[in-house]
Every structure is written in C-alpha cells, then in structure tokens.
Design a protein that fits this description.
heterotrimer, A mainly alpha, B alpha+beta, C mainly alpha, B: disordered C terminus, C: 3 helices
C-alpha cells in the first residue's frame, strides 16, 4: 500500500469513526438534517486540510468538537431562523415529575433548538458529549463560570417549558 | 316535499358539522393578553408533509408518531398562559362547548373546580372508532384547547395519554359493542 | 434534577450520519486534492460548463432543501401539538384520579 492510499484509508476511517458525533452536534443544534449534513461535511473537509497537524486521536476529537461548534454557531447566526427563548426568563428550580414519554423526548430536543446559540451549544456538549464545564469552556473559549451560569439557566428554562407543556405545576 | 327538503338539509348540516373542524379563531385575540401563547393549525396537507419526515431520522419514536398522524385530518391547538386571572371569559369557552354539543360529539370527562379550573374531554364517535378528540382545559391562568380531527384509535389515545393511560371512560367506550355506544 | 438530565441525554443522543456520508466526504476531498494539484488546465472551459450545470442542479436541490425545511417545520409543530395534547390528557387524568381518592 502506497503512503497516499494508506493516508486515504486512515482519513476515511477517521470520518467513519467520528461522523456520528459531528453530524449529531449539527443536527441537535441546527434542527435541520440537510444543514447538519452540510456543516458536518465542511468540518471533515477542513480536517482533511489540517490532517497533518493532528497530534493524537484525542487531539482529533477535540479539534472536531471545536470546529463543529464554531461552524454551527456561525451557521445559525447567518440564518437567524430559529425563535429564541431568553435566559432572562429562567425561573427558580422546581421538583421534576419523571414521565417516560417518546413524544416528550422529541419535544425536549426541539426546545433545546430554541435556546440562544451559546447556551444551546453548551447544553449539547454537556448532554450529547458528556463534557464537563471545564472542557466546554476550553472548546468555546469562554470562562468556566460563564459556562456554568449558561448551563444552569438553560436547564431551568427547559424544565419549566417542559413542565408547562406536560401540565405539571411549578412548585 | 317541504319536509323531505328540510330533512335532507338537516342531515347535510349534521354531516357537515360532523366533518368540519372546530372554530377556534375567536381565541386568537387572547394572544395579545397572554404572556405565552401557542397557535398550531395543521390541516390535512400539512400533516401529510410532516408525516413524510417523521421517520426521517430512522428514529423508532418518529415511526410511531408517523403511524399515529397518518389517520388524522387536522390538529389544532390554541394555548395561552396569562400573568393574571380573568383574562378570558366564560363566553370564550362556551362558544367552543356549543360546537361540541353537535351530534357525533360525546363528552366523556368533565372536571369542575373553583380552585384549579375546568377540564373537558370530548370524543367524536363513529361506530367502533374515534373520529376526533377535543380537550378544553380552562385554568385560572391558562387556557388550552386542542382539537384533533380524523381517525384515532384508542391505542393512539393511550400513547397520547402516556404511561398514565387514557381516561377510563374512553376505554369503556371502546370496549362496548357498537350498538351499545349509541 | 438527575431524571431531567437523563431525559436530556436521551433527547440529545447521537444520531447516525446519513448512510453515504463518508463516501461523499471522500469524494469531495479527492476533488479538492485534484484542484490543488492542477490549478489550471487548457480545457478549464469544460470544467466551467460542468460547474454551471452543477450550479443549476444545486439550485434544484436548494428548492428541495427548502421543501424539506418546510416539512421539518411542520414536523416540529406536530410534535409540539402532540406533546401538549399528551400533557393535558395526563393532567386531567391525574385530577380525575385525585377526586376519586
């Protein structure tokens, strides 16, 4: 196998390994399958141009999350088509009544899509990628305290919205 | 001859009443007073468009919802949250209840409370099937009206009711033989 | 709080990319590579004509994407409507059960 073919196989295996992660961040953020696919393709093509700079598998993952986040936020700001829910309306926390409901799951995903760009991406990185506030702050280049504040208020707002839909009272 | 004409006209009106969706437009003015409002109008063509993409993500739940939606002719929701009480009137609700007194609609649940407000569930019956579902939830600071037109099975209503299940009165209706439901 | 976080994880779980995603990326990467190696060629006019054709097809696919977006929006409204209906039915059920006790 020549060096270039081997490189191609390596790169393709990188795409296959990480496509779900990149695509899903785009899908949950942009709530549009076609756009998510477009952004994901752009991210991997950019990775292709920078593949020589990758130092380790962890570096690739970090780089992909960072670039995907940035491209999604840029894309959303360009489009400005999603209705936004202001975090200033976030209420005090209340007790949650657990109900397993497939419709609710879909609805929660939709509600996440209505958050402002930064809190939306923070929620996705936290709950899709299971990243801690420190890791998110590095990716998005913002202070940890800001990440934590956005996360707390976004969760409170989402819980209130879901409770209002399911009819549960705020206590 | 006149009687035959009147009877035919009456049947046509009943059929039309049975077929046409509930009129909810008079509630739209409440949006100006509401702190939050939801206005959803999905007729048959919009539902068809939505159904094409409900399982687009290879999501099991999407496929279930698609199956539920395929039998429907319309989904209409008006939901308003208010900061204060007294922002909507009895007349607002009465005009909807009047429509639901038409033949074909049957009230299966009625809840009245001076503290928590009123709630009604109606179903439109057609032999062994449910041809529509209407919900009026009138709480002190919230008014929600839902109208679902089209064939909806008890199983689908169960899914809508989630793990808590459908109201028992609807289950009893389904279990009765067709002649007993009249 | 933990249960709502579980709901969020469930709602935001990773979804599989489209079936031919990797193939499309590799095809585009290969095109990028070819353009990088050959920036200009005498029969670039043919390439230009091909680009125009792709542009037209791109417009057609833009229209398709717009329709897809409309369908997605309708889908979102269906889900919201069903979630509201589901929530109200459960709430009324709880009230009825509460009265019975």
């Amino acid at each position: 196998m020549t060096a270039s073919v081997s490189e191609e196989v390596d790169f393709e295996s990188l795409v296959v390994r990480h496509q779900s992660m990149v695509y899903s961040i785009g899908l949950h953020f942009l709530r549009n399958q076609a756009l998510a696919e477009e952004v994901a393709q752009e991210v991997f093509l950019e990775l292709y141009l920078h593949r020589e700079e990758m130092q380790s598998p962890e570096h690739v993952v970090y780089w992909l999350r960072k670039v995907t986040s940035r491209r999604c936020i840029d894309q959303s700001r360009r489009r400005k088509h999603q209705p936004k829910v202001s975090l200033d309306d976030a209420p005090e926390p209340f007790s949650w009544m657990p109900v397993e409901d497939p419709l609710l799951k879909q609805y929660i995903g939709q509600l996440v899509g209505t958050l402002q760009e930064l809190p939306r991406m923070i929620v996705i990185l936290r709950y899709q990628e299971d990243l801690g506030p420190g890791e998110i702050s590095e990716l998005l280049e913002m202070p940890v305290a800001t990440v934590k504040s956005h996360l707390q208020r976004a969760i409170a707002l989402l819980r209130r919205k879901v409770a209002a839909t399911t009819g549960d009272e705020i206590r | 001859m006149k009687r035959i004409l009147l009877l035919t006209f009456g049947c046509a009106v009943m059929a039309l009443a049975w077929q046409s969706p509930l009129k909810l437009d008079h509630l739209d003015r409440l949006a100006a007073k509401a702190s939050e409002s939801v206005n959803i109008t999905l007729d048959a063509s919009m539902l068809k468009l939505a159904a094409a993409f409900l399982s687009a993500d290879d999501d099991e739940d999407g496929a279930d919802i698609k199956k539920l939606v395929q039998g429907l002719k319309g989904i209409y929701v008006r939901s308003f949250e208010f900061k204060n009480t007294g922002e909507y009137t009895d007349a607002d609700i009465e005009s909807i209840r009047a429509q639901l007194r038409d033949p074909g609609w049957k009230k299966i649940v009625e809840v009245r409370s001076k503290v928590d407000g009123d709630a009604d569930i109606y179903v439109k019956t057609d032999a062994s099937k449910i041809g529509g579902l209407a919900i009026i939830s009138a709480e002190p600071k919230e008014l929600t009206v839902v109208s679902i037109e089209g064939t909806i099975s008890v199983e689908d209503v169960k899914k809508l009711g989630g793990n808590f299940g459908i109201p028992k009165s609807v289950k009893k209706l389904e279990d009765k033989k067709p002649e007993e439901k009249k | 709080m933990m249960e709502f976080e579980d709901q969020l994880r469930g709602a935001l779980g990773r979804q599989p990319a489209p079936a031919d995603f990797a193939r499309q990326v590799m095809a585009k990467a290969a095109r990028m590579e070819r353009q990088r190696i050959r920036p200009w060629h005498p029969w670039a006019a043919g390439g230009l004509a091909a680009s125009l054709l792709v542009g037209c097809l791109g417009f057609a696919s833009y229209e398709q994407r717009r329709e897809m977006e409309q369908a997605r929006e309708a889908r979102g409204k269906v889900l919201q409507a069903l979630a509201i209906t589901s929530g109200k039915l459960r709430r009324i059920e709880r009230r009825v059960e509460g009265i019975g006790q």
